[in-house]
Each structure stands twice: as structure tokens, then as C-alpha cells.
Amino acid sequence: MDVIIIFFLIISSLITFLFIVLNSDPNSRQHLNLPPGPPKLPLIGNLHQLAGALPHRAFRNLAKNHGPIMHIQLAQISAIIISSPRLAKEVLKTHDLALASRPTSLASHILFYGNTNIAFTPYGDYWRQLRKICTLQLLGAKKVRSFAAIRQREFNSFMKFLGMLSDGEPINVHEKVTEMVNNVVCVSSFGDNCRQRKQLLEIIDRFGRELSGLYLADLFPDYEFLSVILGRKSKLLKLRKNFDEILDEILEERRRRGSYSDFPSDEREDGDLLEVLLRVKEEGGVGFAITDDNIKAIFADIFAAGTDTSSITIEWAMTEMIRNPTMMKKVQDEVREAFNGKTMITEKELQSLSYMQLVIKETLRLHPPVPLLLPRECREQCKIDGYDIHVKQKVMINAWACATDPEYWEDAESFKPERFEKTSVDFMGNDYEFIPFGAGRRMCPGVNFGLRSVEFFLAHMLYFYDWNLHDGLNPTDVDMTETEGVFAGKKDDLRLIPTFYPKAVDDAPFMNLNM
Ligand code: HEM
Q: Fewer CB within 10 Å, N side or C side of the chain?
């Protein structure tokens, strides 16, 4: 019996030893000077310290004890977490080029056609060319402006929906705003006649969940068999196949309708994003032959990155304002005064709504939709704050921690739009205490597209309606818990009662509800 127990003990010690060796960070074996971090358990590393908390909040708490640069081990995933504006600047500016790549994952590899989208593609010529197409042709200011009529039409449909409600009936603001924003992205991408819109948006929603979740197989990427036996790989492949079939249909229909280049050149500016990409493909000259799969990967990106981010911002802005009725009234007074008697509201006029702009900024500060940005991967060994960052090391920036750092922000946790009146701090990637769109080479190229939707829908919702809580809820009762995952939306959908502001229709001849 003793022999069996001794044998069992030896075998289990050997297994434990093997797990520790296999899971110990290779960097520490290479005598690199790694940043400090919380103590790690064998096999799971620091996973237990994230249990039950949202990652950006858990990381900020850990950073209070372990400093603004930390080494974290999530099972086999090793990550450096940056939590201060000073060090965010080192990563995103001083060492931007060395840290300009992205780590891969099973989900991004499968869903984005071998990471040939913009967001997950490694740094290099391919990414540079895609990024150029994206900023110059797909998401530039002129192109985004040309989608103004789509935003208007979506808002008109929203008003029609509200018009059918009975008095005092609440609406799910989350669902309706998401629908408007998604439709804008869909119509801008594939035009009016996209039959597959509903299925496509459902699939993209599942993309988001697969990319955000903490899956066992993803935490042990070296053990590829786990993704097979746990069914993760087949699930992702099936999802990609669904997306693929829809995109194939859309491409096929577009080709059947006739060549996009039949359009006279003066009408091209208004073409949808698919038309732009097909033209780029046909004209060539980007240094590589664009394939249909490349086009599909870019659309996967536009949908995954461009939908939830804007609707999350609108929902949080409405949530903060409903919690502070004086603030909401101030924005409404501003909007109603500015819209009064206008035949058309231009983009420039929306931007001149100075108090609403402050509310949007403060929303993006306290509720950045992507609180940990997208992870970076090191391409060339470098030092951050004296610590070694080796090639392939994953680096994550806690943008939310930077935006709530008490060294940079007074009363950092409170929602105070007025704080931006007295400062030139902006979100365009030069002020590292406020980087909701990231900064440096991999900064979001969709800032314009995203902000135009946020400004347009917020201003119109506040102009045409008064908003109230339902079921006698008090403003202080509104739940502020965030969702888990890449995107930090509001966990509990915001539900409000809209009350039509009749004067708005007389005052707004630009509204054409039959559009
Ligand atoms: C309020 C709206 C938005 C927010 C807050 C936002 C935020 C972000 C953030 C934080 C990143 C990562 C930046 C980094 O790693 O430094 C990013 C990347 C990206 N975003 Fe956005 N985004 C928004 C809207 C959009 C829209 C509307 C689109 C497209 C239609 C878009 C397309 C992209 C793409 C393609 C990337 C990857 C860039 C690259 O890796 O080179 N985003 N976004």
C-alpha cells in the first residue's frame, strides 16, 4: 500500500513540476528584467485575481499595489499591463513602432480570415496598405459626410416607431440605438438593398461574444488539442462559414447587378463601401492583389469595430444625463435653440453644440467603449520604464485607468462635462490621459464615422423628445454595471419613456418623415 502511495506522490509531483515548467514564463528563464506583478499560482497564473471583476477594473486595482507597469500571467498568456498616462505615452509614442503589431488568437485567426483584417493584422506592408485604403477611401471625412442622409433616414424610422407607442410606454434605448447605428453601418457598407442585414448583424454580435469571452482553450494556446476537444474550433469555423456565405451572396448579387465602374465618376463619391473596395480591387496599384477574402475580412472589421462602439457611447451618455436631469436639460436647451427654424443641420453645426460635445467627451472618458484598447504585440525588443519587453510580448493599455488617474483628473470618478471647458485635453491621440480611440499607428481610423453617429443621434433624440425613467425609478437607482469583454457597454439595458416635444416639428422643417 505504501509503495502505491509513494508511486502516486511521485507521479503527481512530476505532473505538477511539468505544468509549472511548461507554464512558467519563458522570459524569466531568459533572465529578462520583467516588470513586477502579483504572485502567480501554478497553471492559472493570475487568473484567480480577475475572477468576478471586470478586467479593466481588476487590473487597475492590482496596479495600485504593483505599479503602473505589471506583468500578468493568464494561464499561458503573458501580458504587460500599462495603467498610467506616462507609460501609455512610452508605449504608444516613444516605442510605437516597436510595439505596433497585434497578437493573434484562435478566434481572430478564424473569424478574420487568418487575421487579414485591419485590426488584427500584424504590422507590415499589408497592414499599411489596408490602413491607407481605410483612412483615405473608406472612413475619411468626405466619405463619412456622404452618409448623412442614411443617418437621417434611420432617425426618421426611429421616430415612426416611437410614434406608434402608447403614452408613457418605455422603450429599450439600448436596442433601438443599436439598431439605428447598425443600420447606418450596414447601409453605408452594402447599400439599401441588403436583404441579409438581420442575419449579418446577428452573426457580428456572435463575433463580439466569441472575441470577448474568456475561453479555456484560448488560455492554453500551446495545447491546440483543447480547442478541438472542447469544440471551440468547430464553433468558430461554423460562425465564420455563416459570415462567409452571407458575404458571398452580397458579393455575387453586386456583381450580377453590373459593374460598379459603370457609374459615372461624378457619382462615385456616394457609392457604398463595397463599391469602393471593389473598385480598389479592380484598379489595383496597392502593392498586392486584393482577394474577396480580404474584402470580407475588412467588412468583418468595420462591423465588429464600428457598431457597438458608437451605440455604447450613446447609451452611456443618455444614462449619465438621465441620472442628472439638470445636465440633460442644459443639452436640450442648447440643441433646441440651435435647431430652431433651421432647414438643415450640418455636421459643422452639430459640432458647434459645445455643451453636448463636452458631455460626449466626458462619456468617452468615464465609459471608454474599449477600456483596454486592442492589445499590442512587441516586434523589436525594447525597454519600458527600465523593464525589458521582448519580441512577441503582449502589451495592454488600460485606457480607463489612465482616464481615471487621480494624478491627472480631479474628482476622477465623477461625471463632470465642465472639466473639459478649462482644458485643451482631447481624444485625438496626443493626450495619454484620454485615449478612448487609442493613439499612435494603430489608433482607431473610425473616429469620424463613430463620432458623427454619436453626435447626430444624441442631438436628434434630445431635440425631439423628453426622456424619463419608468416605474418610478429614481435617477440614483440606475444601474451602472458594465458588460464584460472587449466592449464595456451597460449591462442592464437602459429603458426610458420618450415624450414627444411637439414644438420640435414646427421648428424643424428639415424633418421629412417620408424620406
Ligand atoms: C465611438 C466609436 C469608436 C471607439 C470608441 C473606437 C475605439 C477604438 C479603439 C480603442 C481601437 C484600438 C486602438 C489602439 O489599439 O490603439 C480601435 C481600433 C479600430 N477601430 Fe475603432 N472605435 C470607434 C469606432 C469605429 C468605427 C465606426 C470604425 C469603422 C467603421 C472603427 C474601426 C476600427 C478599426 C479598423 C480599428 C483597428 C485599427 C488598427 O489596428 O490599425 N472604429 N477603435
A: N
Cβ pair 175, 314 in contact under 8 A: no
> Do the Cβ atoms of 305 and 444 come closer than 8 Å?
yes
pLDDT at 476 over 50: yes
Separation CA 465–CA 338 (nearest Å): 15
Residue 185 alpha carbon, nearest atom of ligand 1: 30
Q: Which atom of ligand 1 is nearest to the CA of 127?
A: 41
Q: For 52-93, how does the pLDDT look when each residue is reduced to its tens digit (9 = 90+)?
A: 889 999 999 999 999 999 999 999 999 999 999 999 999 999
At 63, the amino acid letter reads: A
Q: Is 307 in the pocket of ligand 1 (CB under 6 A)?
A: no
Query: Exposure string (b/e) for 411-424, b if CB count within 10 Å is 16 or more?
Result: ebeebbbebbeeee
The position carrying cell 480611440 is 437
Task: Name the H helices within 2-100.
Answer: 2-23, 26-29, 47-50, 55-66, 85-89
Neighbours of 8 (CB within 10 A): 10
Looking at ligand 1, which atom is closest to the CA of residue 435? 10
Rounded to two decimals, what is the model's pTM? 0.91
Tell me the three cell numbers of residue 161: 416607431
| Contact between residue 31 and residue 388 where contact means Cβ atoms under 8 Å apart | no
Q: Tell me the CA–centroid distance for residue 332 and ligand 1, in Å.
A: 29
Q: How high is the mean pLDDT of the chain?
A: 89
Query: pLDDT value at position 511?
Result: 58
Q: Answer whether CATH 1.10.340.30 is correct for domain 3-507.
A: no
Of all protein residues, the one whose alpha carbon is nearest to atom 3 of ligand 1 is 309
Atom of ligand 1 minimally distant from the CA of 312: 1
Question: What's the grid cell of residue 399?
Answer: 485606457
Beta pairing partners, 69? 82
Q: Distance, CA 366 to ligand 1 centroid (Å)?
A: 17
User: Residue 144 and residue 146: Cα distance in Å, rounded?
Assistant: 5
Nearest CA to ligand 1 atom 17: 444
> 369-404, pLDDT tens digit by residue?
999 999 999 999 999 999 999 999 999 999 999 999
Cβ neighbors of 459 (< 8 A, separation 6 or more) are: 335, 339, 345, 350, 353, 356
| Domain assignments of the chain as residue spans, ordered by start | 3-507
Cα torsion 446, 450, 453, 458 to 10°: value is: -160
- ipTM of this predicted complex? 0.99
Is 436 near ligand 1, meaning CB less than 6 Å away?
Answer: yes
User: Does the beta carbon of 445 lie inside 6 Å of ligand 1?
Assistant: yes
Cell output for 117: 483584417
The best mutation among 294, 444, 449 to test binding of ligand 1, ranked by most ligand atoms within 8 Å of the C-beta, falls on 444
* Predicted pLDDT at 301: 93
The CB of 118 under 6 Å from ligand 1? The reply is: yes
Q: How many CA atoms lie within 13 A of 230 on its CB side?
A: 14
